[in-house]
Amino acid sequence: xxxxxxxxxxxxxxxxxxxxxxxxxxxxxxxxxxxxxxxxxxxxxxxxxxxxxxxxxxxxxxxxxxxxxxxxxxxxxxxxxxxxxxxxxxxxxxxxxxxxxxxxxxxxxxxxxxxxxxxxxxxxxxxxxxxxxxxxxxxxxxxxxxxxxxxxxxxxxxxxxxxxxxxxxxxxxxxxxxxxxxxxxxxxxxxxxxxxxxxxxxxxxxxxxxxxxxxxxxxxxxxxxxxxxxxxxxxxxxxxxxxxxxxxxxxxxxxxxxxxxxxxxxxxxxxxxxxxxxxxxxxxxxxxxxxxxxxxxxxxxxxxxxxxxxxxxxxxxxxxxxxxxxxxxxxxxxxxxxxxxxxxxxxxxxxxxxxxxxxxxxxxxxxxxxxxxxxxxxxxxxxxxxxxxxxxxxxxxxxxxxxxxxxxxxxxxxxxxxxxxxxxxxxxxxxxxxxxxxxxxxxxxxxxxxxxxxxxxxxxxxxxxxxxxxxxxxxxxxxxxxxxxxxxxxxxxxxxxxxxxxxxxxxxxxxxxxxxxxxxxxxx
Length: 524
Prior knowledge:
nine-stranded mixed β-sheet, GMP Synthetase, Chain A, domain 3, about 30% helix, alpha/beta, six-stranded antiparallel β-sheet, about 525 residues, 29 strands
């Protein structure tokens, strides 16, 4: 099945206006150097576009003096805040390739990234400096340092040697979350980033200079990077950046203090806000957007019962820069992701690469102007995923006659039981539809040396024994025997990965332990 929508005027304009050569820092920061509007703000700081421009120029000059060359990698492992934004755009300004990383990486992850990216410079927080001791060119940067630089002018404030590159040349690297193996570097161009800004942020969401944008996902996450570093600057809006790790209390405090009009978060955060009973009057939102993990239908309904505006869904990938399909503004239907962005194309194919019929599930391929240049030094994986102008997402989807997409999980999340495929998301969606009060529901494969079987993790209010009994009754009534979980666990919390997504790898390890423990009991 080939899926496409007619391009909007905005999409046409974006394609027509790509300059042959461009510098993103010049396009997004220097172009507003005379503006006194706020570009970034957060707990304890506020930065105008004019101040941002001064700081970016000063830092770019400093990077040049340190000998960083065009296309060399600069690893930036800082908490969200003005220092991260300034270093990121300074690297873009002088032509290096910035790589924004989780500032809480462990030693093993750091070693892998150093070996893979081979950076010229690493910008890290003082508290993490010991973990980065083996890295080349380590510079530490305290939170709040940038604001002190504004106290006096400096000749570097007038630096203007912006490095322009062809629009399709590499400008930055984003590392994937590593949910399906070691993190891979995804190379993006100015063209891919500007297309995403124009087609999604402006053309689809209607972001404008009057918006205050708050992204709970951090900038090291591709979803958060677009939300905080690109979309607001593209339209002249203000981005709220908070260096603290998100909790219900912290998110509520930011919502109250900074009154954002646009909230980007993952489903778990919206669930936390509902559980924490954040008052409707604390919100000043015109748009609540969820991505990064499947959005349960019951979470949409619970949100609608308490808050306005509606909670909208989207799905994207690092390789496509950001979101490629969404329910906003007019395709909200719980259980469905929405439609492809206007002018972006998709195919749903079977294992042989043939288009499937309407309503049938298959792997989603996407062709879009936001597509990455490819992977950093992964030629075999690049050849497998990027083919003839299409990107293979590895996600299973179906499409209804109205063009709405339904997500059926990752292709590699499926597993076989007695030779038959089990798709976890389909079972999770079924159970959520039957039990609207469920807070969490995740099915994974638990494996012993002999076999793999479904194991279910659920959470809801009330007694755990009652919850398990209710789930078992429903599963026997609605599922074939091979799909039914052999063990139902009610954990105190669901493990999350570094991007705030439910960690299915960790759940699978727990499932293995549960099944192996049961096997040992049977053996005794």
